Amino acid sequence: MSNAFLEHRVKYREVVSRRYGVSPELYDEASRLLAPLAVPFSMRKGEYLQRIGTPAQYVYWLNSGVARTGFITETGNEVTLHFQTDGEPVAAHDDLLRSRESAPARNFVLAETAIHGFRLEWAEINALYQRNSQLRDYYLGATEYSIIEQSRRLYLNASPAQGRLNAFRREYPGLEQRISQKVVASFLGITPQYMSQLLRQDGSKP
């Protein structure tokens, strides 16, 4: 069992259990069940945790760093869907579900900074879900939260660019200083040039 995984998870018990709508006790039990599957990992900035075109295999738990999930449009443009930071799970959930049929991933997951944490095999997690009702309850809470967040972001995409930038700063406080302006622009769905214009307008950039 990975004691380091358990020690790190306990730091985020209150935040994550409230986010998923589960009790702290259920969070602790999920951590205990998942700990034997957790393998420490590290990646350098720019390395892929998941590539487009191959079935998704892993769920990651971040100890430190920033990961980014996104996809490539038919015209070759890169779109950022969301970021994951310290104390968050990292995976493209839809790709994990597709991997049950060995379908290739449609999203990439990239280390936006150097990252450290724990890697868990999705197939092993899935097998645990089938055997343990408590882990299924925890997974249900995580899934419901993911659906709500996805819906919220879809509505946000209809907002003006400045509103999307303000929402990004509320959702990811301090992240703007850890990643490139180009990546923030890809999350907002605007060009880097327009991003520079927005920053000049709100006084964030000289």
Termini gap = 51 Å
Instruction: Give the overall average pLDDT.
Output: 91
**H/E series:** HHHEEEEEEHEEHHHHH
Shape: globular
Biggest sheet: strands side by side, in what order? Answer: 1-8-3-6
Largest sheet: 4 strands, antiparallel
Number of helices: 9
What percent of residues adopt helix (DSSP H or I)? Answer: 40-55%
Question: What proportion strand?
Answer: 15-25%
By helix and strand content, what is the structural category?
alpha+beta
Secondary structure: number of strands = 8
Low-pLDDT regions: none
Gyration radius, to the nearest Å?
Answer: 18 Å
Q: Which characteristics define this entry?
A:
206 residues, single chain, four-stranded antiparallel beta sheet, globular, 8 strands, alpha+beta, 9 helices
